[in-house]
C-alpha cells in the first residue's frame, strides 16, 4: 500500500483499517516513512479525527512498537494510575503506598517531568539514597514482596509514540484528542497494567483547560481501554488552583509524608481517596467505592499506609526515616515570603502562574536538557476561601542560594498576581467534576 493514499484517505474523512494504521506506524518507526508524510497524516487526523476503533488500533500499534512489560508473575490485579499533569500533583507519592497498604499491588513506571516541576521519579530522588533503577526481575520481586515499586521508564518502550510526539510538537498537531489519548494509553498498555485509573485534570493549570475537552479526552481513553480489554476509569479533577500546598520536588515529598501521617491538606487527601477507591474496586480489593474509601481511610488512621511508604522507600535504597521526619528531606534555606496586598478572602489562585513560578525557581525543566533543583519550589500558605489581612503571607518561595535578586522579584510579582483577593468569601471549586466509565459520564453535583 502507498502512504500517500492513506494520507489522502484520512484527509477526506475515511476510516483506516488496522493494517493501514500498522503500515503507517511501523513504517514511520523504522524510518521508511519520512517526517513530511507523517506530518501530513497527523494534520489530517487533527482535522478529521479518528473513530474509537481506529484510535484503539493506533494505540496498540504504538504500544507494540517496542518492549512490552509482562507483569503476569505479579500476584493480583495490577492497577495503574495516570495523571494528565498539573501543579502540585503529589498524588502518586501518597496513592502508591496507600493502595498497596489496602491490598492492591502497584507496579508503576513513571517519567521525569518537563514543565512546572519534576515528575514522580525526580520527586522520589529527593529522598536520600532512593534509586529508581531496578532490573525487571527486581521490580517484579519487590512488588510481590511489599506490594509497591516505582521505577523510571527504561528500555525501548513505545518508540513510535516518542517519535510521533516529537513530530507533533513541531507541527502544531499536539492538541488532537485521538493522538493525545493514544499517546497516553500506549504507554499504559506497554507498562503491563490489568486495569487503569486516569486522573484527567481540567482548568488553568491543566493541559485541557475546559471541562468539555477534559471529558472528551477521558471518554477517548476509556474507549481505548474498553476496545483492548483493559478495565479503565477516568476521574475529571480540578486544576484551576494548585493541588495541595506544595509545588516543588522535595517539598512535595514532604507533603506526601504529612498526608500519609494523616495531617495533609484536605484536597490532596480527598483526591487520593477518590482515585484509590477506583483502584481498589478495579483491583478486586473492595466491592464498591464506599467500602474502598473506608478501607483507605483506615490504612491512614492505623498508620499502615505510612508503614508501607517506609517499607517501599527502604526497598529502593532510600532513607525510611523520612516517613517519621519529613524535615530530613532537604529544601532550600533561602525562603522568601510573598505577602497579601489587601484584606479580604482568596477567591482564586491561577494554577498555571504558580506552576510557571516554580519552574522559574528551578523546580522544573523548560527543556529536556534543563537542570532541576530538587530543593526549590513554593509553599502555599493560603488557599481559595481563606481570609487574609494585608501583610499576611500568601506563599513562601524556596529559592536557590545564589538566585539573582531581580529574578526573585519577578517571581514574587508573578505569585502575587496569581492570587485574587476579594471582599466576600467564595466557595472553593469542586475537586471532582465527573467520573467516566465505559457506561458513560456521571457528573458530580
Can you put this structure into words, describing what you see?
By secondary structure, the protein is an alpha+beta fold. It is 44% helix and 16% strand. It is built from 16 helices and 14 strands. The strands form 4 sheets. The chain has a 5-stranded mixed beta sheet, sandwiched between helices. Helix 10 links the parallel strand 4 (195-202) and strand 5 (231-238). The longest helix is centred in the middle third of the chain and has 17 residues, at 211-227. The N and C termini lie far apart (51 Å). 53% of the residues are buried.
List keywords for this structure.
445 residues; alpha+beta; five-stranded mixed beta sheet; 44% helix; globular
Quick structural gist:
The protein is α+β, with helices and mostly antiparallel strands and 445 residues long. The chain has 16 helices and 14 strands.
Amino acid at each position: 500500500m502507498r502512504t500517500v493514499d492513506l494520507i489522502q484517505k484520512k484527509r477526506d474523512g475515511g476510516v483506516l483499517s488496522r493494517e493501514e494504521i500498522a503500515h503507517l506506524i511501523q513504517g514511520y518507526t523504522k524510518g521508511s516513512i519520512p517526517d513530511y508524510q507523517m506530518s501530513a497524516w497527523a494534520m489530517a487526523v487533527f482535522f478529521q479525527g479518528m473513530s474509537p476503533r481506529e484510535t484503539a488500533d493506533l494505540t496498540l500499534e504504538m504500544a507494540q512498537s517496542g518492549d512490552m512489560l509482562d507483569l503476569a508473575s505479579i500476584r493480583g490485579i495490577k492497577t495503574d494510575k495516570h495523571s494528565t499533569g498539573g501543579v502540585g500533583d503529589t498524588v502518586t507519592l501518597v496513592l502508591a503506598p496507600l493502595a498497596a497498604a489496602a491490598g492492591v499491588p502497584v507496579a508503576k513506571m513513571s517519567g521525569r517531568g518537563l514543565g512546572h516541576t519534576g515528575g514522580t521519579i525526580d520527586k522520589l530522588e529527593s529522598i536520600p539514597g532512593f534509586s529508581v533503577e531496578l532490573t525487571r526481575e527486581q521490580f517484579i520481586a519487590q512488588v510481590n514482596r511489599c506490594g509497591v515499586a516505582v521505577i523510571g521508564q527504561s528500555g525501548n518502550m513505545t518508540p513510535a509514540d516518542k517519535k510521533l510526539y516529537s513530530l507533533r510538537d513541531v507541527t502544531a498537531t499536539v492538541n488532537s484528542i485521538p493522538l493525545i489519548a493514544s499517546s497516553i494509553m500506549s504507554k499504559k498498555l506497554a507498562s503491563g497494567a490489568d486495569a487503569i485509573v486516569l486522573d484527567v485534570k481540567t482548568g488553568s493549570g491543566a493541559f485541557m483547560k475546559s471541562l468539555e475537552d477534559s471529558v472528551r479526552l477521558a471518554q477517548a481513553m476509556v474507549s481505548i481501554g474498553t476496545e483492548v480489554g483493559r478495565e479503565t476509569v477516568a476521574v475529571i479533577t480540578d486544576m484551576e488552583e494548585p493541588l495541595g500546598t506544595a509545588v516543588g520536588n522535595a517539598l512535595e515529598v514532604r507533603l506526601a509524608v504529612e498526608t500519609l501521617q494523616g495531617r495533609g491538606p484536605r484536597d490532596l487527601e480527598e483526591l487520593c481517596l477518590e482515585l484509590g477507591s477506583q483502584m481498589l474496586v478495579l483491583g478486586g480489593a473492595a466491592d464498591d467505592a464506599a467500602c474502598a474509601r473506608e478501607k483507605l481511610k483506615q490504612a491512614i488512621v492505623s498508620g499502615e499506609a505510612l508503614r508501607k511508604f517506609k517499607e517501599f522507600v527502604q526497598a529502593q535504597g532510600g532513607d525510611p526515616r523520612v516517613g517519621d521526619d519529613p524535615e530530613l528531606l532537604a529544601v532550600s534555606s533561602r525562603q522568601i515570603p510573598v505577602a497579601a496586598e489587601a484584606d479580604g478572602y482568596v477567591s482564586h489562585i491561577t494554577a498555571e502562574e504558580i506552576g510557571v513560578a516554580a519552574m522559574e525557581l528551578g523546580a522544573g525543566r523548560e527543556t529536556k536538557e534543563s537542570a532541576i533543583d530538587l530543593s526549590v519550589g513554593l509553599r502555599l500558605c493560603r488557599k481559595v476561601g481563606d481570609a487574609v489581612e494585608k501583610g499576611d503571607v500568601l506563599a513562601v518561595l524556596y529559592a536557590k542560594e545564589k538566585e539573582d535578586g531581580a529574578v526573585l522579584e519577578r517571581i514574587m510579582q508573578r505569585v502575587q498576581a496569581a492570587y485574587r483577593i476579594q471582599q466576600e468569601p467564595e466557595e472553593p471549586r469542586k475537586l471532582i467534576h465527573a467520573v467516566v466509565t465505559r457506561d458513560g459520564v456521571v457528573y458530580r453535583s
